[in-house]
Design brief:
About 20% of the residues lie in helices and about 25% in strands. The chain is an alpha/beta fold. Strands 16-17-18-19-20-21-22-23 form an 8-stranded parallel beta barrel, surrounded by 4 helices. Strands 2-3-4-11-6-9 form a 6-stranded antiparallel sheet, with no helix packed on it. Strands 1-5-10-7-8 form a 5-stranded antiparallel sheet, with no helix packed on it. The protein is globular.
């Protein structure tokens, strides 16, 4: 798919090599967990162990309390009474008779969080990243979500440390779901310790929200989730299971390979394409598209109407059509939407002779967990588009929700590529690009994680975030959003850097560096005499 480097200036080659060396370090083929497990009782063999606690308390802005340490997992339902789950000796990930924690769901939309398990008090060091991993399985499918987050405690281990919001945000962890029922799957996340007041962390594993096949929540029949074999280690984000193979998309207008590289058909030729997409302001039109967005370096516009797509093409840009409007959020999951309008939109784009300028179809899944409607919408898109363009799904901290849409129950993936928010209100303080690392390395994610979503809070970290995302496997990025006239995109601190960034990315793309695998078949090790050895 890519050409080997040739005939370019030395400066450009050096830029490319620097980026690729950075990428090689960060995006290994299997980032295997090798650090010692800091959880004192990871398999729950000893019920008197002090590392796995149960939880009994209300959710109140991260101020959560501890309950007893017996075999009960308690939660609050809508009437503020407790219902119990328990240690289930009959189910174990390791098949050693140690059992697992069986978590029950919440009851009612007001209190959706159900059973939870706490991995208690792991001593941490400043400036170090810690990975947490747990195995879980669900009793039914579509399955609910498993969430884990990190609570921080001061160096005296006696009180919860309520950090300022930007730092506290980093402790949110991640959440996700399953590809099938009755299958143990790994969930991984990590946290970097930067606040000097933090001496200990506790990890919370929660069971929340169902995503039934019919799109309507039946709170009386949500099934169970079992969790087992906990891990916490002093190591950057890693995984106990190897990554799953990715499925390529071979469309007639856009292609996406197993690494996530995008090619578009331009006439009779296939060309590599790195989307630099912008969500434009509502009161800007074709002249601004051309003189502001395209002139500065953006090559793709996110649109949700045919008229906006036409303006983008007239301005010399391509477009990604946003079909998120057809998918209600979970709270309105019983809403019925006529997806036949999708056929009308695609036919209208075809009639306007601009369907070939579409890069991909866009779905935002930061707040939507409605499996029924996602399935209906994606099937309607592929049917009416004849699978010419891929379907892209954007995620947030719900990174592993993608398992629901690239699963082992449907005969094929509902989506073709996935991305993650890598910089937003978290700003440059948080390396959200690790979410791409999770997408590309976590087991049972079978579509490439190839797009980075950047939001307006990234500030001066914009350029660094783009390159960090490329190093983690991004083959394009989007920015949201131009807020003209109140806060036009031209006022952002990184705006003047965009033309140079576009030139650099074009150089890397033309010479095949972005398209190349961002991992090696060799590694560097050190022997006892501190000699450097390359191992294949």
């Amino acid at each position: 798919m890519y050409n080997k480097p040739k005939g370019v200036k030395m400066k450009k080659i050096l830029i490319s090599l620097i980026v690729m060396l950075f990428a090689i370090q960060l995006n290994a083929q299997w980032l295997e967990l090798t650090a010692p497990n800091l959880v004192r009782n990871p398999t729950i063999k000893d019920m008197n162990g002090d590392s796995v606690l149960t939880f009994d308390g209300r959710i109140d802005d991260f101020l959560w309390g501890f309950g007893s340490t017996d075999t009960t997992i308690a939660f609050w339902d809508s009437s503020q009474t407790t219902t119990t789950g328990f240690w289930d000796q009959s189910v174990s990930h390791t098949n050693d008779g140690s059992g697992s924690w069986r978590m029950t769901p919440g009851i009612g939309a007001k209190y959706p969080f159900g059973g939870r398990v706490v991995v208690d008090f792991i001593e941490v060091q400043q400036g170090v990243e810690y990975t947490f991993s747990v195995y879980a399985k669900a009793s039914q499918w579509p399955a609910p979500s498993v969430i884990f987050k990190f609570n921080a405690y001061d160096t005296d281990m006696g009180s919860y440390w309520k950090m300022p919001y930007p730092q506290r945000w980093k402790m949110k962890g991640t959440w996700g779901t399953f590809t099938d029922k009755d299958k143990w799957e790994e969930f991984s996340g990590s946290v970097s310790i930067e606040d000097p007041n933090i001496g200990y962390i506790a990890v919370y594993v929660l069971f929340t929200y169902a995503n039934p096949l019919d799109g309507v929540i039946d709170w009386s029949n949500l099934g169970f989730v079992w969790v087992d074999d906990f891990y916490a280690g002093m190591q950057p984000i890693g995984f106990r299971e190897p990554p799953s193979e990715k499925t390529a998309f071979n469309g007639t207008q856009t292609k996406v390979d197993e690494l996530g590289n995008i090619q578009i058909k331009n006439g009779d030729k296939w060309e590599p394409f790195f989307p630099m997409m912008v969500f434009g302001a509502d009161d800007r039109y074709i002249n601004e598209y051309k003189s502001i967005y395209a002139a500065q370096g953006f090559n793709t516009l996110a649109v949700s109407t045919v008229s906006r797509a036409q303006m983008a093409v007239s301005a010399g840009m391509r477009y990604a059509f946003d079909f998120t409007q057809f998918i209600p959020v979970l709270d309105s999951a019983n809403q019925v939407i006529d997806v036949s309008e999708i056929a009308s939109i695609i036919q209208e784009l075809k009639g306007a002779n601009i369907l070939d300028k579409c890069v991909y179809w866009y779905l935002d899944n930061k707040t939507t967990n409605n499996y029924k409607m996602v399935k209906a919408v994606t099937e309607a898109i592929h049917e009416n588009d004849n699978s010419a363009h891929p379907i892209y799904m954007n995620t947030w901290i719900n990174t592993l929700e993608v398992r629901r849409y690239a699963n082992q129950v449907d005969s094929s993936n509902l989506i073709d590529m996935v991305g993650a928010c890598v910089g937003n209100g978290e700003g440059a303080l948080y390396d959200g690009t690790k979410r791409l690392k999770i997408l590309n390395n976590q087991m049972d994610v079978t579509v490439p994680g190839n797009m980075a979503s950047i939001y307006d809070g990234v500030g001066d970290g914009f350029r660094a975030t783009v390159y960090a995302a490329i190093a983690q496997g991004a083959k394009g990025f989007s920015f949201s959003k131009d807020k003209a006239p109140d806060n036009p995109i031209e006022n952002y601190s990184w705006w003047s850097q965009l033309p140079t960034l576009k030139t650099e990315i074009d150089t890397l793309l033309a010479n095949g560096f972005i398209q190349a695998p961002h991992y090696t078949d060799w590694k560097i090790v050190f022997d006892n005499n501190e000699k450097t050895i390359l191992e294949s």
